[in-house]
Task: structure prediction
Amino acid sequence: MRIFFTGGSGKAGKWAIRHLQAQGHVVVNIDKQPSGLDCSELLVDLCDAGQVIGAMSQYADFHELEPGTGVPKYDAVVHFAAVPRVMIGTDGECFRQNTLSTYNVVEAAVKLGVPKIIFASSETTYGVCFADGEVKPDYVPVDEEHPTVPHDSYAMSKVCNEATGRSFQARSGADIYGLRINNVIEPHEYAENFPAFMKDPGLRRRNIFAYIDARDLGHMVDCCLKTDGLGYEVFNVSNDDMSVGITSDAVIAQFYPDVPVKRDMRPDETFYANDKAKRMVGFAPQHSWRDVL
Result:
């Protein structure tokens, strides 16, 4: 597939692009700064609607001129570009850039007839991650039916982006899938960060004691690219195990004593349920911090 990928210069985007290329996809990275990856790139301000639709409807590299058959079409759009969290700039600017860029990307894709759109939503939509003080989930494990009541501008932007995706899907009939991505971990970060998580599990409370390996996130994107006909869907994206060394029973006793537990949980099972992604798109994460530590 020829893929219009936004945000490929970021942490998650670089790993996703590498994985997609390894599966044989042709990826064009759309970002404000070069990624350093071996792929075609266009430098674009995604908050400018004209630049977005222009980038999506033009040549991306010199080799595309050779066939003499005009500008090739994109088979899919993957939208990862965003201000990645609160407290980088102002709250309002985070919200503006994330919502406007998503609207522009999805609108352009729909108007140009791109049949598959995948966008990055977030674990923060559940209102736990960036809350003022401690907010506990309504129940565990947290699945996609859990209420999304964000407390911050980043999470608000992601909830708005989900509404944008649902609305454009209803009008266009395109497949539009939102990925509620948990905390993205690169392979080298296991040895660097997880010893502290093993010593103090409370460090992972705001991430619902979960994580997603950057390589498995790329796999999830590929699963979505290969799965047609779902219309609009959102998926939690996490690895199968928790990001702490104690058991699920110990986490419940220490952090969730008054939180309803929806079902029996395995001793090391994630509290950020990924069952829907497994069932509907064939997600099968392969990596774990436990393989390193």
User: Anything to note?
Assistant: The chain has a mean pLDDT of 98. The two ends are 37 Å apart (CA to CA).
